[in-house]
Design brief:
Blueprint (H helix, E strand, L loop, with lengths): L1 E2 L10 H8 L12 H14 L3 E5 L2 H12 L5 E5 L3 H4 L4 H6 L2 E5 L8 H5 L14 E7 L12 H13 L3 E6 L2 H8 L3 H4 L5 E5 L10 E5 L1 H13 L8 H13 L4 H16 L4 E2 L9 E6 L6 H10 L2 E2 L1 E4 L2 E5 L6 H15 L1
Helix pairs in contact: 1-11, 2-11, 3-10, 12-14
The structure holds pyridoxal-5'-phosphate (PLP).
Pyridoxal-5'-phosphate binds next to α3.
Length: 343
């Protein structure tokens, strides 16, 4: 089976497992796990923030990130197709009493004008929940995995600041943006208060994400992580995989991007799915059903029958995520297997 359903299916390599086995550990709830500390410091430095916190998942990092930027009863803003809105089980409302207004915008990005449609003009308007936080997803799944254009990100950040709003980045695939844009993670994160990034996706670690931000916020985040049951003990065993991922698996994301583009080129030669390969800039390929009466579930079922695993993105589009699970030869094999299904 060739795995394209998600980059979360990446399995730890033998060398990564060896690093995990050799990790020095302690009780991280007591702040005594040296490997977790090393990962938190390294990760914070990479994204240009004062402190970092190791959390078990991107969803947990985002949940805490929202709590840091949005007080109970306030209103946060996120794209209508973002992970925070669609796939985090209503966390901001369920956990913190935060309403998330859904900002529209082409391709998962939005402009200051699109944000301004939803933020109250008068923050003291008694009809409105006080505005608190803007969330951006980078890379954006709804933009077929593209990174936020840096100028647009700065202009949205400036608009947020001008209204006194905090900014949280869901950078689940931040390092795909780093590789695609050829700039440091610190540059991409320069204008956000807090950022979450995942070690468990294209970076290939089995578990773990980082939440980074100002030292005082991360001290609060540490308590919130405990509140949510996310304090773990000898977590160095998994933090070691994260350190290994940062050392070995960032630059190779470029291969995933090349492979995604090649996959899209191949898919485009068939008539069952439509895609413009030039829009593929990272490791996500989203292709639309092009035949009357067809649907994403049927395409995925037919592909699985020939050994190619893809996932519906929505009813009429199919997502293929490239990762270290499938190399360039695997892409050619996948296209050969998929050809009769997509022809
Ligand atoms: C854009 C985005 N944000 C956040 C997450 C959450 O990560 P996790 O699955 O580790 O909770 C995901 C997971 O796929 C994601 O794609």
């Amino acid at each position: 089976m060739l795995e394209f359903r998600s980059d979360t299916f990446t399995r730890p390599s033998t060398a990564m497992r060896a690093a995990m086995a050799a990790a020095e550990v302690g009780d991280d709830v007591w702040g005594e796990d040296p490997t977790v500390r090393a990962l938190e410091e390294r990760a914070a430095a990479l994204v240009g923030k004062e402190s970092g916190l190791f959390v078990s998942s991107g969803s947990l990092g985002n949940a805490i990130g929202v709590a840091l930027g949005a007080a109970h009863g306030t209103e946060a803003y996120a794209h209508e197709r973002s992970h925070i809105v669609e796939n985090e089980t209503g966390g901001p409302a369920a956990l913190w009493g935060v309403t998330v207004r859904q900002v529209r915008g082409e391709d998962g990005f939005f402009t200051p004008a699109e944000l301004a449609r939803w933020v109250p003009g008068d923050p003291d308007d008694p009809h409105r929940a006080p505005p608190s936080l803007v969330c951006v997803e980078n890379t954006s799944m709804h933009a077929m995995g593209a990174a936020w254009p840096l100028a647009q990100l700065s202009s949205v950040a400036a608009a947020a600041r001008a209204r006194g709003l905090a900014l949280h980045m869901d950078g689940a695939r931040l390092f795909n943006a780093v590789v695609a844009q050829g700039v440091g993670a610190d540059v991409i994160c320069a204008n956000v208060d807090t950022v979450t990034f995942c070690l468990s996706k294209g970076l290939g670690a089995p578990i773990g994400s980082i939440l980074a931000g100002p030292a005082a916020s991360i001290a609060r985040a540490r308590r919130l992580r405990k509140l949510l049951g996310g304090g773990t003990r000898q977590a160095g065993i998994i933090a070691a995989a994260g350190l290994y991922a940062l050392d070995h698996n960032i630059d190779r994301l470029a291969d995933d991007h090349v492979n995604a583009r090649r996959l899209a080129d191949g898919i485009a030669t068939g008539s069952r799915l439509a895609i413009d390969p030039s829009l593929v800039t990272t490791n996500m390929v989203v292709a639309c059903c092009a035949r009357e009466g067809d649907n994403a579930a049927a395409v995925c079922r037919d592909l699985a029958a020939v050994g190619v695993l893809a996932a519906p993105y929505d009813a009429l589009s199919v997502r293929f995520a490239t990762s270290l699970e499938v190399d360039a030869a695997g892409i050619e094999a996948a296209l050969a297997k998929a050809s009769p299904v997509l022809r």
